[in-house]
């Protein structure tokens, strides 16, 4: 059967699509790059599968939108109803194609139902990340319950998948599951990307590690909650679908999925991770301040208890530690003395700030710091002027369950967005503010894409009018992290856990998608407020220094020794941030499960730093060598242990790095690895490498 074929590829991967007899296109190859001489028509023909007893006479393809009308035996890509309420079962046929240097738009139509299905696919040069989106258009108003972004088949050797769950203070929990007959489905109906559902999936084989093996990684760039289906059909074939959470879309004439970002890696999870990290840095995030400033955030120091003189004293100390941006958190507006009131009343609390924010801002600016401020625009408390004036602005039914005693504003309403724009822009226009921490502390009572579209519209308007104001996406920590929100913000608050041990794990898993430059990480109080754990300053400071560094403790609690350590680490971070905030974060495969280690490799490959944290006591008494990655095997590197003074008295031997630096080849470092001095649990070694 004659087929139309298309190829999207670069030096890392090839994706080949074929459309037989003008039916919807299907991926007939996705993997390592194919030679230029490959005959795509032959590949298309070779993709035909056999049929035997007990099967229909032709296997329905896993097309970019598997169709019920083709007797597809699994989850279909589009479900909906026509204006008369009848289930849609369209039969799409080729209409047109348009290609650009790196992309392809394919349009298919179903004349019976007057539907057009448009696929937009592109492969970004340099970062080798696919961006894929499906749009459905119709002349009459229809109801759509499910529309998948372009659907991709997974090869038989990807017999495992890694998916993401989590919770408040423990985001980015990964689970490695076998593909098995049937569908693994996640339907995140919280209305935000959420702690429990980072919208991503990695399909891999059981042999794939951080540094080797094949992986297919996906991320759905949408902040309103996603649905994912990873299915093994009864005939053994596999498919992956991503789209908005079910029932997000409802009625209309035009429906669009968010972009699905995807990549194939033949170099383990790191091969995929660095493409997402680079793509986010280079193609998604706009307007991030450089160099990335060291933060101070006052939340865990004062909570709602704002006192001008106290805040000034804290700012002075934070500046002395090296902070460059002071963020005034929750509690400055309305009559907000706790979390039961005032959300929606975005006017400065005259009881706490009789002369407005100007005296605090002037103090902070005189110290040389930028001033940032907290908002939670989409939320409303019943105990607020706003609620008393506009109870009808609330999303969902009056008797809904509250979250943190608060309700959600209906962001689809133009007047709600206009009110919020007026409040926020007034504060920004009247004060010298360079930064907003934009919070979102509860799940939504109803799932509706219009809510997310409304939030995007408000942020876009504010960004257009205040382009110098950076925004951090926070939702009780990492509840709204995705490429959709990061198109409009410059940093994420990864977690409300400032416990360095927990942070080690969370930021390590998040690095599968997030670069250091957007990932906020703060040095918290000595006794963690969310875990009760007491951790030493070296571990706390170096852990935060692995990402976008900040402080969140009350600086008045610090001992002289803690101050000295924190200043030293902050000084090191400032000296290295220019290359480190652009480096690839490579997760190291370690043989000791008590250890988490990563290597940040500079863009030019000339230098790197390794952070090797020991979370708990190791089983073996000797430290296992840490094997590096991504180096030039034939080159020599000088290796130095930055914090060798942290070696405890119980380390009695003479590993070379304890005394001085060493020079070794990339081959040795990657194959044998570095022997580190013995140490206590809950400590971290920091190792620098420089190409000779
Ligand atoms: C939740 C955030 O994650 C915290 O950092 C803090 O900003 C509080 N909200 C304030 O209410």
Features:
binds (2R,3S,4R,5S)-2-(hydroxymethyl)piperidine-3,4,5-triol; globular; 11-stranded antiparallel β-sheet; 692 residues; 14 helices
What is the element layout, followed by pairings?
Layout: E1 3-9, E2 14-20, E3 26-31, H1 40-46, E4 78-81, E5 93-99, E6 103-110, E7 115-124, E8 129-147, E9 152-154, E10 160-167, E11 170-178, E12 182-187, E13 200-204, E14 215-220, E15 226-232, E16 238-244, E17 250-256, E18 260-265, H2 268-284, E19 295-297, H3 299-302, H4 308-321, E20 325-328, H5 358-366, E21 370-375, E22 379-381, H6 385-389, E23 406-408, H7 414-430, E24 435-438, H8 449-465, E25 470-473, H9 483-486, E26 491-493, H10 500-510, E27 519-523, H11 537-544, E28 548-551, H12 560-580, E29 584-587, E30 595-601, E31 607-614, E32 636-641, H13 656-659, E33 662-665, H14 666-671, E34 683-691
Parallel strand pairs: 19-20, 19-28, 20-21, 21-24, 24-25, 25-26, 26-27, 27-28
Antiparallel strand pairs: 1-2, 2-3, 4-8, 5-6, 6-7, 7-8, 8-17, 8-18, 9-16, 10-11, 10-13, 12-15, 13-14, 14-18, 15-16, 22-23, 29-30, 30-31, 31-34, 32-33, 32-34
Helix pairs in contact: 4-5, 7-8, 10-11, 11-12
Bound molecules: (2R,3S,4R,5S)-2-(hydroxymethyl)piperidine-3,4,5-triol.
């Amino acid at each position: 059967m004659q087929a139309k074929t298309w190829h999207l590829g670069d030096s890392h991967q090839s994706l080949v699509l074929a459309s037989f007899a003008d039916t919807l296109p299907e991926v007939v190859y996705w993997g390592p790059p194919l030679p230029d001489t490959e005959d795509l028509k032959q590949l298309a023909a070779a993709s035909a599968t056999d049929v035997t007893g007990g099967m229909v006479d032709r296997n329905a393809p896993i097309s970019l939108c598997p169709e019920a009308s083709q007797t597809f035996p699994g989850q279909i890509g589009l479900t909906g109803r026509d204006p008369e309420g009848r289930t849609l079962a369209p039969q799409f046929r080729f209409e047109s194609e348009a290609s650009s240097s790196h992309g392809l738009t394919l349009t298919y139509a179903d004349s019976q139902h007057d539907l057009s299905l448009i696929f937009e696919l592109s492969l970004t040069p340099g970062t080798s990340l696919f961006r894929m989106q499906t749009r459905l258009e119709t002349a009459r108003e229809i109801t759509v319950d499910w529309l998948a972004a372009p659907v991709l088949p997974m090869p038989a050797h990807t017999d495992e998948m890694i998916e993401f769950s989590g919770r408040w203070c423990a985001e980015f929990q990964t689970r490695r599951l076998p593909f098995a007959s049937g569908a693994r489905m996640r339907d995140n109906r919280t209305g935000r990307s959420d702690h429990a559902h980072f919208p991503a999936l990695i399909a891999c084989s059981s042999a794939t590690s951080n540094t080797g093996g094949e992986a297919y990684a996906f991320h759905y760039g949408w902040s309103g909650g996603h649905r994912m289906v990873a299915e093994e059909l009864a005939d053994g074939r596999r498919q992956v679908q991503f789209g908005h959470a079910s029932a997000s879309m409802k009625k209309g004439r035009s429906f669009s999925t968010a972009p699905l970002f995807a990549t194939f890696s033949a170099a383990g999870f790191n091969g995929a991770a660095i493409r997402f990290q680079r793509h986010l840095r280079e193609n998604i995030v706009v307007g991030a301040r450089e160099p990335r400033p060291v933060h101070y955030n006052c939340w865990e120091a004062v909570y709602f208890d704002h006192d001008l003189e106290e805040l000034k004293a804290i700012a002075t100390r934070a500046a002395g530690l090296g902070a460059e941006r002071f963020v005034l958190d929750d509690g400055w507006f309305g009559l907000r003395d706790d979390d039961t009131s005032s959300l929606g009343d975005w006017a400065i609390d005259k009881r706490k700030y009789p002369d407005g924010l100007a005296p605090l801002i002037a103090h902070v600016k005189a110290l040389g710091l930028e001033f940032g401020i907290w908002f939670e625009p989409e939320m409303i408390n019943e105990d607020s002027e706003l609620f008393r004036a506009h109870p009808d602005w609330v999303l969902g039914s009056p008797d809904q369950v509250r979250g943190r005693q608060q309700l959600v504003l209906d962001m689809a309403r133009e007047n709600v967005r206009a009110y919020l724009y007026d409040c926020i822009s007034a504060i920004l226009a009247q004060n010298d503010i360079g930064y907003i921490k934009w919070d979102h502390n509860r799940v939504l009572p109803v799932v509706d894409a219009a809510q997310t579209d409304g939030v995007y519209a408000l942020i876009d308007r504010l960004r257009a009018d205040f382009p110098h104001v950076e925004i951090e996406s926070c939702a009780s920590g990492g509840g709204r992290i995705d490429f959709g929100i990061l198109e409009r913000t410059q940093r994420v608050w990864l977690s409300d856990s400032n416990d360095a041990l927990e942070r080690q794990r969370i930021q390590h898993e998040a690095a599968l998608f997030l670069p250091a430059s957007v990932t906020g990480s703060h040095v918290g109080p000595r006794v963690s407020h969310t875990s009760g754990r007491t951790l030493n300053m070296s571990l706390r400071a170096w852990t935060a220094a692995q990402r976008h560094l900040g402080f969140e403790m009350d600086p008045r609690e610090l001992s002289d020794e803690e101050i000295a350590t924190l200043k030293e680490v902050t000084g090191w971070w400032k000296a290295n941030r220019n290359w480190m905030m652009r480096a690839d974060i490579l997760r190291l495969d370690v043989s000791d499960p008590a250890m988490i280690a990563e290597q940040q490799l500079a863009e030019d490959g000339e230098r790197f730093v390794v952070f090797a944290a020991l979370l708990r006591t190791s089983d073996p008494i000797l430290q296992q060598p840490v094997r590096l990655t991504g180096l030039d095997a034939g080159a020599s590197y000088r290796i130095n242990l930055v914090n060798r003074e942290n070696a405890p008295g119980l380390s009695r031997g003479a590993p070379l790095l304890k005394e001085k630096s060493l020079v070794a080849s990339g081959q040795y470092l990657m194959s044998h690895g570095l022997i580190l001095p013995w140490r206590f649990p809950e400590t971290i070694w920091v190792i620098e490498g420089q190409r000779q």
